[in-house]
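Q: what sequence does this backbone want?
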């Protein structure tokens, strides 16, 4: 492991240029024709010929039978292309067709249509998110208007000398400090009055879910499902990971802290604080002895990504940071297929030169990574050690020595990983006006 990824580690010196190039490449291609996402013949018909799809639908049905309901993201029959690649009139027409297709599906499920607050309609991508019973799920499978059905998964956040190590110091000295740019941090919320982040937060949003069958409750102000009001991007409460977003925001753009917490990577950039986590109260969701915990549904992430897209002309947004995820994918094609709704939202952002930068995950995989980092239009980031030392990543193996710039033993890596950056013992802001060292691909991202 020590040398196998050295060629990627060299990218640290061109991190800023690489990210900008990856984002800008999205608009260099000619406008694509609109296409149906998912299964054009309908998910039910496709399942007849696909054992894998049939098994996935059966797993959802079993969960719904056991728990009374299951959360899903449903693809609807409306052709799609990233809006920025369409003429204005065509983009408006696409939105109308998406809304009509969503309404057509809901009209076949009147009990869901009556519970409008439980249904998430996405404005710019042809998908819906909802909680359904086994009976609802069977009805969806039989609708030709439904092109995909995937679980709305709840995933966790992915948990000194990083700025000089990635070559950011020469960039800062050259005037590239992030001034005039904003980064949207989709995480557990940001403590905007922290000394390291004072005056940094220029917009806020919260997307969070209450679903009793999942043991989930919204942490948005007053328990609402969504808000873009001032204060809505504040840190979640009641879970150990609620400082995560504040730490990430400090690493991105913190400035003015103590000597042991130097300025963040883009010290003059602004932050758009987006709280996308929900509080879970059961050990089934959190793990034995881990409840309560904070997890984020894919549907809440998509709502936030759509809001970033809506703010593209209000704020100069350079990038989205998503230090969250789960699962294991060894290929981007499989990842894209299993995460079509999130990918479509990322594609919309990429088409307007907003890079979506996502942690690869902390499971130590050497041939795969988690979602949504594995999505082909995202920029995935793994972790390297910030300095030489010894450590072990499990309770069995003895400590091993490593060099600065070696891939961290906890970091997911694979041939389609985009970038590496230091992610060990990174000192940054946490809730309560404090500073702590965190390690993980989140810190690298």
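A:
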């Amino acid at each position: 492991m020590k040398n196998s990824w050295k060629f990627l580690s060299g990218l640290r010196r061109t991190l800023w240029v690489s990210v900008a190039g990856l984002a800008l490449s999205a608009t260099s291609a000619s406008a694509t024709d609109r296409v149906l996402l998912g299964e054009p013949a309908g998910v039910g018909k496709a399942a007849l010929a696909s054992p894998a799809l049939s098994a996935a639908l059966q797993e959802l049905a079993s969960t719904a039978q056991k728990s009374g309901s299951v959360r899903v993201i449903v693809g609807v029959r409306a052709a799609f292309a990233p809006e920025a690649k369409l003429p204005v009139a065509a983009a408006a027409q696409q939105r109308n067709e998406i809304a009509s297709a969503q309404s057509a599906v809901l009209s076949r499920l009147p009990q869901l249509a009556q519970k409008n607050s439980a249904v998430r309609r996405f404005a710019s991508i042809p998908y819906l998110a909802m909680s359904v019973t086994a009976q609802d799920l069977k009805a969806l499978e039989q609708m030709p208007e439904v092109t995909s059905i995937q679980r709305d998964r709840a995933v966790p956040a992915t948990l000194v000398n990083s700025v000089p190590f990635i070559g950011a110091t020469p960039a800062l000295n050259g005037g590239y400090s992030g001034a005039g740019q904003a980064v949207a941090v989709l995480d557990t919320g940001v403590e905007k009055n922290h000394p390291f982040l004072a005056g940094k937060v220029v917009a806020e949003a919260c997307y969070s879910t209450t679903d009793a069958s999942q043991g989930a409750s919204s942490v948005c102000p007053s328990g609402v499902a969504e808000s873009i009001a001032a204060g809505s991007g504040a840190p979640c409460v009641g879970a150990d990971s609620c400082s995560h977003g504040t730490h990430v925001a400090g690493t991105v753009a913190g400035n003015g802290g103590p000597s042991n917490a130097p300025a963040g990577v883009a010290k003059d950039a602004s932050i758009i604080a987006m709280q996308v986590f929900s509080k879970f109260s059961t050990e089934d969701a959190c793990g034995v002895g881990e409840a309560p915990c904070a997890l984020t549904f894919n549907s809440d992430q998509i709502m936030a990504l759509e809001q970033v897209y809506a703010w593209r002309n209000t704020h100069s947004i350079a990038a989205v940071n998503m230090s969250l995820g789960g699962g294991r994918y060894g290929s981007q094609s499989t990842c894209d297929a299993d995460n079509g709704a999130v990918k479509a939202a990322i594609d919309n952002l990429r088409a307007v030169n907003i890079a979506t930068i996502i942690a690869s995950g902390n499971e130590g995989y050497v041939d795969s990574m988690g979602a949504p980092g594995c999505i082909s239009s995202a920029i995935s980031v793994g972790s390297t050690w910030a300095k030489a030392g010894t450590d072990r990543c499990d309770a069995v193996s003895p400590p091993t020595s490593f060099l600065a710039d070696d891939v961290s033993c906890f970091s997911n890596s694979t041939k389609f990983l985009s970038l590496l950056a230091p992610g060990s013992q990174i000192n940054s802001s946490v809730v309560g006006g404090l500073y702590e060292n965190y390690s993980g691909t989140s810190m690298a991202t």
